[in-house]
Amino acid sequence: MLAKRIIPCLDVKDGETVKGVNFVDFRSAGDPVALGRAYSDAGADELVFLDITASHEGRKTFTSVVERVAREIDIPFTVGGGINTVDDVERLLSAGADKVSVNSSALKNPDLIDEVAKRYGSQVLVLAVDARLDFEGEDDPWQCYINGGRIPFGKRLEQWCREGADRGAGEILFTSMNHDGVKCGFALDPLRRLHESLPIPVIASGGAGKKEHFRDVFEVAGVDAALAASIFHFNEVPLHSLKQYLREEGINVRI
Known about the structure:
By secondary structure, the chain is an alpha/beta fold. Helix content is 38%, strand content 27%.
């Protein structure tokens, strides 16, 4: 069985790592280059870098920061934010990214998924989805949002993730806006449904607050990876001790 992955996330705004709650009220969390190096040294399985205001502000991801982070780490590196064209993907791969994450641009132009997968392969493309529980009681109650969680788009979570997988996305990174920064655990039910219905890996994001939340998301939802930010940035749950705990709980992780 493949090892479960633990992935720190750098949410970057104006060149600085930040962290908010429910996608608002951001506070500083430090220098992304120093954090990336520390996570790589501490045994993170991958690193995700998201320029969280690039799409909203209509600009490209800060290539120079990506280059600086890439030089300091030796683990797989995913970069997202403001990726609208295949040329943007080429720019970030050339800057040192191993994979790119597309979100708002893919919802607005789903053909972008096909184009990137065809040129670079599905293994390069992570489809990031920010969704909120907007329609309680329905079969697919989570609505997708664009522009860093600012604007509801109308598409439903499961519907959109299936389409993304069919078009060639290599992984799904689902962030629950309801759970983001709240530290009460991941959105287990929609994550389990995605894991069971999709043919590609699912990464859980939003809600990690303690070690047990990672155990639950792997055991109950069955996801392939779990992403977190503030609990790592502020050393509330050290990476190495988290992996030791998960190993003791019978979860297959790399140490």
